[in-house]
Amino acid sequence: LDPRRIQWGSAWNTFTSRVLRTKPVESMLDSAVSGTSSHGTKLARVLSTVDLVSLGVGSCVGTGMYVVSGLVAKEMAGPGVIVSFIIAAVASILSGVCYAEFGVRVPKTTGSAYTYSYVTVGECVAFFIGWNLILEYLIGTAAGASALSSMADSLANHSISNFMISHIGTLNGLGKGEQSYPDLLALLIALLVTAIVAFGVKNSVGFNNALNIINLIVWVFMMIAGLFFVNGENWDEGRFLPFGWSGVMQGAATCFYAFIGFDIIATTGEEAKSPNTSIPYAITASLITCLTAYVSVSNFNL
Questions:
Q1: d(CA 114, CA 127)
Q2: Closest CA to 148 of 176, 184, 174, 197
Q3: Interatomic CA distance for residues 91 and 77, integer angstroms
Q4: Residue of 84, 77, 98, 51 whose CA lies nearest to 202
Q5: Are 109 and 8 in contact (CB under 8 A)?
Q6: Closest CA to 85 of 56, 61, 52, 101
Q7: What confidence score (pLDDT) does residue 295 get?
């Protein structure tokens, strides 16, 4: 333990070699060729490019189309919400191109950014990215379930929240000082989605396709109904950007959240039939589809 006897150079090299050591991609590819993942479990290659696009669209289109667009239009960007979504989409597409490049370089591994950083950068960076991914999916799932619960409560004339408050009670310290209630409906929604995912990727993709069809029907309905409420004055000079470009950029930062979810396509490398071509096409196509949906719907939130 004498500091004078410690070879600091060799100790530092040993430390950095352990922290920055990477996982050989050949070992992952060998396990994939043999039909098993790195944990010894076999994953079925059942996902086509269309399935991956549907998976990406289903992961992105949701609260962004029904909640975020109206929120940004009302409080941040006004009619300029269209520009906010375009800016956010450009940033998302650039990020998606990076994911597509990773998917081509390491096509037969799961783990998304965790695996890619483990292969290219090192174990230490992969450790932090892995926990950040857990945090991202945790917050994303909670936000989506909470939004669905809030919509159901609004459709039920707030009878669900009133029942929770009167029979269970309220929680202090949540939100902006107001009282909140235990959202058991959101918990049930999260558990239901978890159970569906646990049945396997083929079943979960089928359920996701059904939800996408419902989203498509609602999207078309909103487009047709919104045509009767078009107001050209919102596009006049001075009204298109009521909050200025600062509001547009603030809205773009919020709109970027609506595009989170496309990275789930990159985690299906071992379940896609042709990952080298399917993953890049699916990421790009899903982001363009989501951009079209958000821009078209945001026109009628003004």
A1: 8
A2: 184
A3: 18
A4: 51
A5: no
A6: 61
A7: 80
| Nearest Cα to Cα of residue 225 among 159, 165, 297 | 297
Indicate whether this model's pTM tops 0.90.
no
Give the residue among 30, 202, 53 at the shortest CA–CA distance from 108.
Answer: 30
Q: How far apart are CA 197 and CA 191, in angstroms?
A: 10
**Closest listed residue to residue 192, CA positions, set 169, 211, 171, 170:** 211
The first and second tokens of residue 43, run together, are: 């994953």
Say how many CA atoms lie within 13 Å of 239 toward its Cβ. 7
Q: What's the maximum distance between 2 C-alpha atoms anywhere in the chain?
A: 83
Output phi, psi for 109, to 5 deg. Answer: -135, 150
In order along the chain (302 residues), what is the average pLDDT of each group of 10 residues? 57 68 65 51 71 81 73 81 87 80 65 76 84 83 82 84 81 60 86 82 78 84 78 70 84 82 73 76 83 77 56
Q: Determine the Cα–Cα distance for residues 88 and 102; give it in Å rounded to an integer.
A: 21
Provide the token pair at 39.
């944990």
Model pLDDT, residue 190: 87
> Residue for token digits 């992952």?
28
